[in-house]
Amino acid sequence: MNDTAAVLRHAVDAQLPAAISDLAELVAIPSIAFPGFPRDEVERSAQAVAALFEATGLFERVDVRTAVVPEDGKPGMPAVLATRPAVAGKPTVLLYAHHDVQPVGDERLWETPPFELTARDGRLYGRGASDDKGGVIAHLAALRALKQVLADDFGVGLVVFVEGEEEAGSRSFAQFLQENREAMAADVIVVADSTNWDARTPGLTVSLRGNTRFTLTVRTLAHASHSGLYGGAVPDAMLATIRLLNTLWAEDGAVAVAGLTEHQAATPDYDEDALRVDAGLLPGVSPIGSGPILGRIWNQPAITVTGIDAPSVLHAANTILPEVSVVISARVAPGQHSREAFDALQAHLLAHAPLGAELSFSDIDYGDGFLAHTGGWAVQLGKQALAEGFGVAPVELGVGGSIPFIADLARVFPQAQILVTGVGDPLSRPHTPNESQDEGALTGAILAEAWLLHRLNSDDLTTSSS
C-alpha cells in the first residue's frame, strides 16, 4: 500500500463508526416514494441527508429541491443537491446516490426490524442499508476522509446529487436535470447504486439492462357470473390470463417474444452452484434459459409477472372472474430501446390473446439500459481506485437490473465520463426481506472513492489523458 492509500485508510477507519451511526439514522426513516406511502417521510429523509452533507463544511450550497413530473405536472420527490466549485484547473465530480427505499413487504419475513440497522456477523441489516443509503454514506464518508487528509488543499469541484424517487421510477429525474443542468455539470460522474462481484472483490458496472413495466388487464365478461351455472361454457379472465402469459416463455423458460434482442458480450465464469447459493434456488428447481448463466442475466431479456389483481385465497368465491390485471416487468437487453421492447411485447400479447379476450395496457414505464465507454481515462482511474480500496483488482460487470436514469445522465452530460459503482454484493438482497450491507465492502467502497477523489484533486488528468 502506498503512502497516500495508507493515510486515506487511516482517515476512513477513524471515522467509520460515525458513518455507520449516520447510516443507522437514515435507515430509521421509512423513505418509501411509492404512491400510498407518506410523502413526509421522504421529505424527512431528504432533510437528514442534506444536514449530513452541510455539516462537512465542504459545500458552498446545499439545497433540497424538487422538479415536476412532466406526465402529470405533479411535484416529484425531494432530492438533495450540494455544490462546491472547482479551483481553477481541477475537475468537477458528480456523486450520485438515492435516499428512497423499497417497501419492506411482509415484515414477518424479516429477522430483525426493517427500519432498525442491526449488525450481525459482519453485515448491517435494514431496508436501504445497501440500496442505497449505503451509497449515500459511502459518498459522505469518503468526503469526510478526504477533507481530513487534504485540509486546505481540497480543490476538486463537487456536486452531490441524492435523489428521492429512484425506486419509484425517477419520474421527475429528467426534468430535474434540465432545471439544474448548469449546477450539475461535471467531468466525471460516480453513480453509487450498483453492486460488486462479491463482498471482497469490487465491481465496475459497464452494462445494465433497460426495462419496461406495465399493467395488462384481461377481460372476458361484462360482469362476474356463478361458476356452477356457467362454468364449462364461459371462459373466465383467469383462464385467458394464464394461457396468454404462458406464451411469453419457451419451454425452457427463455423469453419467446419476437423483437426482443440480445446483447453479445463475453461474461466471466459463473456456475449453477453459485447461482443456487446467491439466488436461493430451491433443491430440484432448474435454472431457466440457455447459454452462459451471466449472459442470461446480463445480456438477454427477461420477463417477470410482479403483481396480480384477483380475489385472494381468503376472499375466494365460486365465481367466474370477468377481469384480471397483472403487472409485467421486462428487462431489456443492453442496446435496445425500452419503447421498442414495449412495442414488441404489446404486439405479441395482442397477437396471442386467447378466446377473443379483450386486452388493455396502462401505467407504462420505460427505462433505457446502459453501455459504458470503457476506454476513457476516468474508467482506468476508477479501476485503480477500486483496486486500492479493496486490495483486489475489480471485475467489469454487466448487471441484470436497471438504472434508467444513467441514460438520462449520458444524454444531458455527453462529455462526462460515468463510473457505475456500488457498495452491495450478491448477499445484500436489495428489494427483499433482510436486506444487508457487508461492513468490509462498505469500507472498501469508501476508501476507493476517497482515493479516486484524491487523485482527481492532485493530477491534471482531464487534459493529459482525455
Describe the structure.
By secondary structure, the protein is an alpha+beta fold. It has 2 domains: 3-208 and 369-464, Aminopeptidase; 210-263 and 300-366, 2-Layer Sandwich (Alpha-Beta Plaits). Helices cover 34% and strands 21% of the residues. It has helices spanning 3-27, 39-54, 133-150, 173-179, 181-184, 227-230, 237-246, 272-279, 293-298, 338-351, 377-390, 405-412, 439-458, 461-464; strands at 61-65, 79-84, 92-98, 118-120, 123-125, 157-163, 188-192, 203-208, 210-219, 225-226, 302-309, 319-320, 323-332, 358-367, 370-371, 395-399, 417-421, 436-438. It has a 6-stranded mixed β-sheet with strand order 1-2-6-3-7-17, sandwiched between helices. Helix 1 (3-27) crosses helix 13 (439-458) and helix 11 crosses helix 13. The two termini are 27 Å apart.
Please sum up the structure shown:
The protein is α+β, with helices and mostly antiparallel strands. The chain has helices at 3-27, 39-54, 133-150, 173-179, 181-184, 227-230, 237-246, 272-279, 293-298, 338-351, 377-390, 405-412, 439-458, 461-464, and strands at 61-65, 79-84, 92-98, 118-120, 123-125, 157-163, 188-192, 203-208, 210-219, 225-226, 302-309, 319-320, 323-332, 358-367, 370-371, 395-399, 417-421, 436-438.
Strands, helices and their partners?
Elements: H1 3-27, H2 39-54, E1 61-65, E2 79-84, E3 92-98, E4 118-120, E5 123-125, H3 133-150, E6 157-163, H4 173-179, H5 181-184, E7 188-192, E8 203-208, E9 210-219, E10 225-226, H6 227-230, H7 237-246, H8 272-279, H9 293-298, E11 302-309, E12 319-320, E13 323-332, H10 338-351, E14 358-367, E15 370-371, H11 377-390, E16 395-399, H12 405-412, E17 417-421, E18 436-438, H13 439-458, H14 461-464
Parallel strand pairs: 3-6, 3-7, 7-17, 8-16
Antiparallel strand pairs: 1-2, 2-6, 4-5, 5-18, 8-15, 9-13, 9-14, 10-12, 11-13
Helix pairs in contact: 1-3, 1-13, 3-13, 4-12, 11-13
